[in-house]
Write a structure and sequence with these properties.
368 residues, Rossmann fold, Dehydroquinate synthase-like, alpha domain, 7-stranded mixed beta sheet, two-stranded antiparallel sheet, 19% strand, binds nicotinamide-adenine-dinucleotide, binds zinc ion
């Protein structure tokens, strides 16, 4: 088993990574000095596949369990579901020492984390992420929350889990498209922080796509280490943490103009990172060969590296970018990579350069 420590003073915790950890969930929770009752929050898809083994493990360790199932998909991240969870927790009389377990992807983790942060002003919670994106990204760093009609993640709290268990065996049931989308964040860690990880991804991509156990253990652990390291230095996003947004300004805008329907987040930020690589080549000295290696690696992972847009859609995309929350004082700031393995944040970018980067990933359709 691999273990990564997230160092946040008294709120420090471990991320444990191995195949088969779900069967040890109860025993792991028993080491944490928690109450006897716990609520397992999951979604309908994951409930059918993995809840039974999680619940059995908790019962073997002597915990009394309540199962709360929410609908699968982004629509579960809303205040109505938060209230429904609160009501179920109260009906089953969960108290201050009781705890919550989030079993599922980033949606369940964000929702259950926010429920844990606010029920009785905060009860302990444990993350058991079951998508690649959740294991390498959303379960690390303590951001929890839900969406409003006005936008994604507008209500939430920084709230750290007591433990994160990444069971690599849960990937056996994860749809291919979801798996590849998670790889977009793993590639991001290589670009912003670790050229060796990037080179390893280039070398091992075929093995990773076959979900080779040893390769997965390495990339999940290294990704968690990198995110944990960045988050430990900047828990509440004052500065450094912004490098995690590489490719996300354009990626979020792509998600927004396609009404969150066409691309998964990982797919949108794959295109966004290729565009950010072009910006980096023009403005921060990223060598052309490295820009091409970045495009090629996303391609090798089976992720989109370009999109077709009309000029009207291009205009919408640029407008969506200025609405992104990373804009301060009306100016778009980008994370750029001067080379693979290093990122700088808060870089002002002239709009003509954004146009040229978009030309590289999205040549304008000629209109007749
Ligand atoms: N808190 C953070 O720091 C942070 C960071 C990144 C993303 N997020 C959030 O994460 C969410 C996206 O997470 P996601 O990509 O994991 O999506 P998700 O939670 O919707 O999961 C994707 C799909 O896979 C299914 N699924 C999950 N695990 C499975 C498994 N092992 N086998 C079969 N099916 C499985 C789910 O039911 C769902 O249909 C977004 O809401 C995003 O805002 C949060
Ligand atoms: Zn992301």
């Amino acid at each position: 088993m691999r273990s990564v420590k997230v160092s946040l003073g008294t709120r420090s915790y471990d991320i444990k990574i191995a195949a088969g950890l779900l069967a040890k969930l109860g025993a792991e929770c028993a080491t944490l000095d928690l109450g006897q009752k716990c609520a397992l929050i999951t979604d309908t898809n994951v409930a059918a596949l993995h809840a039974k083994s999680a619940l059995a493990s908790l019962k073997r360790a002597g915990f009394e369990t309540v199962l709360i199932t929410v609908p699968a998909g982004e629509t579960a991240k809303r205040l109505k579901q938060v209230e429904s969870c609160f009501n179920q927790l109260a009906a089953h009389r969960l108290e201050r020492k009781s705890f919550i377990i989030a079993l599922g992807g980033g949606v369940v983790g964000d929702l259950a984390g926010f429920v844990a942060a606010s029920y009785l002003r905060g009860i302990p919670f444990v993350q058991v992420p079951t998508t690649l994106l959740a294991q390498v990204d959303s379960s690390v760093g303590g951001k929890t929350g839900v969406n409003l009609a006005a936008g994604k993640n507008l209500v939430g709290a920084f709230y750290q889990p007591r433990l994160v268990l990444c069971d690599l065996a849960t990937f056996r049931t994860l749809p291919e498209r979801e798996f590849r989308a998670g790889l977009a964040e793993v590639i991001k860690y290589g670009i912003i922080h670790d050229s060796d990880l990037f080179a390893r991804l280039e070398r091992d991509m075929a093995k990773i796509l076959r979900r080779d156990a040893a390769s997965l253990a390495h990339i999940v652990a290294r990704s968690c280490e990198i995110k944990a390291d960045i988050v430990s230095q900047d828990e509440t996003e004052g500065g450094l943490r912004a490098v995690l947004n590489f490719g996300h300004t354009i990626g979020h805008a792509i998600e927004a103009i396609t009404a969150y329907g066409r691309y998964l987040h990982g797919e949108a930020i794959s295109i966004g990172q290729v565009a950010a690589a072009h910006l980096s080549a023009e403005l921060s000295g990223l060598p052309a060969v490295e820009c091409e290696r970045i495009r090629a690696l996303f391609g090798a992972a089976g992720l989109p590296v370009g999109l077709k847009l009309s000029s009207a859609q291009r205009t919408k995309l640029l407008a969506a970018m200025t609405l992104d929350k990373k804009v301060s004082a009306g100016e778009i700031k980008f994370v750029l990579a001067p080379r693979i393995g290093k990122a700088v944040w808060g870089q002002r970018v002239p709009s003509a350069a954004v146009h040229r980067a978009l030309d590289a990933v999205s040549p304008l359709k000629t209109e007749h």
